[in-house]
Amino acid sequence: MRQVKPDILEVGAIDWDRRLFDEIIPLPDGTSYNAYLIKGSEKIALVDTVDPTKTETLLTNLAEAGVERIDYLVSNHAEQDHSGSIPDVLELFPDAKVVTNEKCKNMLIDLLSIDEQKFIVIEDGQELSLGNKTLKFIFTPWVHWPETISTYLVEDKILFSCDFFGSHLAAGELFVKDKPRVYETAKRYYAEIMMPFRGLIVKNLEKLKNLKIEIIAPSHGQVYDEPKFIIDAYKQWISDVVENKVIIAYVSMHGSTRKTVEYLVSALIAKGIAVLQFDLVGADIGKLAIESVDAAGIVLASPTFLGGAHPAAAYAAFLVNALRPKIKYLAIIGSFGWGGRMVEQLKGLLANSKAELFEPLLIKGEPKNEDFRKLDELAEKIASKHKELKK
Ligand code: FEO
């Protein structure tokens, strides 16, 4: 249990050991499920709960906080890492009402079989008094599901933003101190959870623009007592601006694709371009996602495997397609022995991407002089594109 301000406590759980989220997202720094207890002069509210695996921690914290009743259980987001303990809290505090919007209510009924009679449905901008404190609900859809809302505590100027502005970081200190570390974990979080909804985040940030926010209290990671730090980072990530940086993600079975990649990487470095080379076998996909937040382009390199793309390259293409980074170009390169549909398959998996797709470069066997010349041309094309983007 940690204090945000007098009468405002963080009563959720730190998950130091969790290493995977949604069974796909690597969590090298663990995570937390923050839940906030707000004691008003007349009513008591709990904003979000915790992942079901940590219900006991939440209930212990509520007991230690001396909570004898909860009037309002605000659910900002129906995903189970924040809602999973709602049934247990309702069992302990049967008079509590779940406060949320219509969409979230329906999801909570579907996901957790919560009785419809338990809900108070709120509208965008609606306020709810706790006596000396007021909750204001601001609908912020798609951070990270369509039902998501943020809750603003008017008198204390605190925004409880749930996933929005969150970071997968387990830390004992409640408030952000180590900004570079938080920047990196928040960027990883943004890349994996928020980036696919970049356009909608622009709208949500716009919606929050006129609120006086002194503290942002997300439901993952640490609390920002200098909100400008994370708001500015988000503005940078959602902007259309990309860096002079390219990601080369590759897999190689017998070395031909690796040689191709290594040649291209050297050629790009010689042209002053920052290159991130990822061997997809064993790569931290989260790190690749982080770099994709502001990379100008991605080169995907694959050998031909049973007549098509190597599954590791297909997996990377599928992720890029799902995460929708703001990259401006994509290139597919690789090697083959006697033919195959590697390029067609990867192209198909990248169908959502709006990036310009460069002419694929396929090499028969290992790269030879003519292939190195073509790789130089590709490096030149990438360099020209970066110059154009800088203007
Ligand atoms: Fe942290 Fe979308 O749940």
Tell me, what's the shape? Answer: elongated
Q: Please give the CATH class of the largest domain.
A: Alpha Beta
The class by helix and strand makeup works out as alpha/beta
Which regions contain 5 or more consecutive residues with pLDDT less than 50?
A: none
The level of helicity is: 25-40%
* CATH domain topology of the largest domain: Metallo-beta-lactamase, Chain A
CATH-defined architecture of the largest domain: 4-Layer Sandwich
Mean pLDDT: 96
Q: Outline the biggest β-sheet.
A: 7 strands, mixed
First-residue to last-residue Cα separation: 50 Å
Beta content: 15-25%
Q: How many helical stretches?
A: 12
Number of domains: 2
The CATH fourth-level homologous superfamily of the largest domain: Ribonuclease Z/Hydroxyacylglutathione hydrolase-like
- How many strands in all? 23
Radius of gyration: 24 Å
Please characterize this protein's 3D structure.
This protein has 12 helices and 23 strands. It is elongated and about 80 Å long. It has helices spanning 55-64, 80-83, 86-92, 102-112, 179-194, 198-208, 227-238, 256-270, 285-292, 311-323, 342-349, 369-390, and strands at 2-5, 8-10, 13-15, 20-21, 25-26, 31-33, 36-39, 44-47, 72-74, 97-100, 119-121, 127-129, 134-139, 149-153, 158-162, 215-218, 245-250, 274-279, 297-305, 308-309, 329-336, 356-357, 361-364. Helix 1 links the parallel strand 8 and strand 9. The longest helix is centred in the C-terminal third of the chain and has 22 residues, at 369-390. The model has no long low-confidence stretch (mean pLDDT 96). The chain folds into 2 domains: 2-238, Ribonuclease Z/Hydroxyacylglutathione hydrolase-like (Metallo-beta-lactamase, Chain A, 4-Layer Sandwich), CATH 3.60.15; 246-381, Rossmann fold. It is 35% helix and 24% strand. The strands form 5 sheets. The chain has a 7-stranded mixed beta sheet with strand order 1-2-7-8-9-10-11. Strands 17, 18, 19, 20, 21, 22 and 23 form a 7-stranded mixed beta sheet that branches. Strands 12-13-14-15-16 form a 5-stranded mixed beta sheet, with helices on one face. The termini are far apart. It is α/β, with parallel strands linked by helices. MU-OXO-diiron (FEO) binds at residues 77, 79, 81-82, 144, 163, 220.
